[in-house]
Amino acid sequence: MVLLQLDPFLNELTSMFERSTKIGSVWVTLKRSSLQSNLQKTKQKTAGEGIEFRCLIRATDGKKTISTSVGAKDHMRFQASYATILKAHMIALKKRERKEKKKAVETDKKDAGVKKPRKV
Q: Is residue 117 part of a domain?
């Protein structure tokens, strides 16, 4: 596993998605981590220091595993870039046709609610 900076991680993640377009999958996991051992954490707690937690992100396609760590300052920029990459590579998913179903239900309700005029 390779710990990369944010931009190289996003570039490598993009290439993983491109390699697995036809066949394969990419697994991305996100986890809270301080990137310290338990001994270091207990020393900081006893000293009264606060522990800075980061988001550890790992991605694998089965052949190669990459990871990065995102701090609180960079999470908004990373979130936007990650969302863009996901949107660009989710072309295989079927789009929902919710609008047509919603229109059909509304017209059925209108037809059921309209009373027929009486002949006098």
A: no
